[in-house]
Design a protein that fits this description.
By secondary structure, the chain is mainly alpha-helical. The chain has helices at 2-6, 8-30, 35-65, 75-90.
Amino acid sequence: MAHTAKGKEKLIVRVRRIRGQVEAIERTLSAEHECSEVLQLVAACRGALNGLMAELVEGHIRYHVLDPKRRGDSPQSEAAEELIEVVKTYMK
């Protein structure tokens, strides 16, 4: 997965941030905080995971689905861009 190797450090930072969010959920549950606080933390974590997923899917489409020889104004490239936008919108 060449695209993940190039952006590896950025992805690892995101994963570490998500790990911190999951740990915050655990601490909040252990401390028996209000459910609204737990729900807010879970929603934030879910958003972070969705953002990571969208980034990985976009990289996969750009580097493994698109034909590098046909990039540019090809119908395949336009369809890929539309798909990337749909994924980003869905994952918000």
